[in-house]
Write a structure and sequence with these properties.
By secondary structure, the protein is of the alpha/beta class. The chain has helices spanning 16-30, 48-56, 91-94, 112-123, 143-148, 204-208, 216-237, 253-258, 267-274, 277-283, 303-312, 349-354, 356-375, and strands spanning 2-5, 35-38, 59-66, 72-79, 85-89, 128-132, 152-154, 173-175, 187-191, 263-265, 286-289, 293-294, 318-322, 324-325, 338-341. It has two domains: 2-41 and 276-375, 3-Layer(aba) Sandwich (Rossmann fold); 48-267, Glycerate kinase, domain 2 (Alpha-Beta Complex), CATH 3.90.1510.10.
């Protein structure tokens, strides 16, 4: 039986490659009659860089940049096998896991480091970029990144503003003539499956702000700041991307890239094309996928849902193995043959994280035993 293993990462605990390797070991330990194929996946969030580098024979380049809280951090960007295209993963520069829980507050985070990494790659001669947007700790509309790339922002007194979320509302004037001229020669593919606009009830602040540490009052303030920022940009550049699908990705970083002539692309589709996923699905008898938590929002375009829709074209069954099953997970049976949580009983999130490899191996092994009975 051909088993295709195509998981997303278990955010904060296991990369997609680690998840896939554990699932594969569980199956092969149960029976040598399984032929396994592991393709680590990503949808524009955490793990996208690793997946694309692995699939194309590329390399990682270590560098230093400003982290989400303003201090210097060690990070990296990827260069694909074509030696021309750079992959930048926002989660490794301005990512939420980089901020301790007690310090999470999007008023005090910045995307400044993203611009620094882009500048470093530009100085190395690169002009083609894939930006993996998921997993940010920020809600600054990407103005921190734009500031780092040379755009000048001033308050009502003509003073340069800071680079954090709280400074967004202070902007009164901007000057794009100071933008690094080499940025205009670059192309940016914005890899994300987030469809949210910049502002409003479905916008960056209201939908994603709370998980980044924003209070109800702060969420309203952040939304108003983004609206203010978008209006200033429209006046300055004559373009309005506020309602564009994906503008709200990564706290509005998608919005900023649109103003750099960026092109929105599906992260899952990009990764599937690079890894030749459709061909692998065609050859599979059974598919395993998974993510950190599966719930009603999984069907809004998350990676496992994308896998299931592709598999449906070939009538291939798909089992979903996730860290946990949340509200509305029963709705997912419309798309998946079976849905599984790795938990074996009541346990805290901390315990689940500490035992994730053992628990995942156990659950994958259970599915393997069922399928073994089918073929032996």
């Amino acid at each position: 039986m051909n088993i295709l293993i195509v998981p997303d990462s278990y955010k904060g605990s296991l990369s997609s490659l680690e998840v896939g390797t554990i699932m594969e070991k569980a199956f092969l330990d149960v029976s040598t009659n399984f032929q396994t194929n592991v393709i680590p996946m990503a949808d524009g969030g955490e793990g996208t860089l690793e997946t694309l580098i692995s699939a194309t024979g590329g390399k990682k380049v270590k560098t230093q940049a400003t982290g989400p809280l303003g201090g210097k951090v060690l990070t990296e960007y990827g260069v694909l096998g074509d030696q021309k295209t750079v992959v930048i993963e926002i989660a490794s520069i301005s990512g939420l896991p980089m901020v301790p829980v007690e310090k999470r507050n999007p008023l005090h985070t910045t995307t400044y480091g993203v611009g620094e990494v882009i500048t470093t790659a530009i100085e190395e001669g690169f002009r083609s970029f894939i930006i993996a947007l998921g997993g940010s700790a920020t809600n600054d509309g990407g103005f921190g990144m734009l500031q780092s790339l040379g755009v000048s922002f001033y308050d009502k007194n003509g003073n340069m503003v800071g680079a954090f979320g709280k400074d967004l509302g202070s902007i009164s004037k901007m000057d794009w003539s100071t933008l690094n001229p080499l940025v205009k020669k670059c192309t940016f593919q914005i890899a994300s499956d987030v469809q949210n606009p910049l502002c409003g009830e479905e916008g960056a602040s209201l939908i994603f702000g709370p998980q980044k540490g924003a209070t109800i009052e702060q969420v309203k303030e952040l939304d108003q700041q983004l609206l203010h920022f978008s209006r200033l940009l429209e006046q300055e550049k004559g373009e309005d991307f506020q309602k564009t699908s994906g503008a709200g990705a990564a706290g509005g970083l998608g919005f900023a890239f649109l103003h750099l002539n960026g092109k929105m692309i599906s992260g899952a589709k990009l990764v599937s094309e690079v890894t030749n996923l459709p061909r692998a699905i065609q050859k599979a008898d059974w598919i395993l996928t998974g993510e950190g938590q599966s719930d009603y929002s999984t069907s809004f375009g998350k990676l496992p849902f994308y896998i299931s829709t592709m598999a449906k074209q070939y009538h291939t069954p798909v089992s979903l193995i996730s860290g946990c099953l949340g509200d509305g997970y029963k709705e997912l049976y419309e798309y998946f043959t079976s849905c599984h949580s790795i938990s074996t009983g009541p346990m805290s999130l901390q315990e689940s994280f500490s035992r994730v490899e053992e628990l995942l191996y156990h659950q994958a092994g259970n599915i393997a035993r069922i399928l073994k009975a089918k073929i032996e």
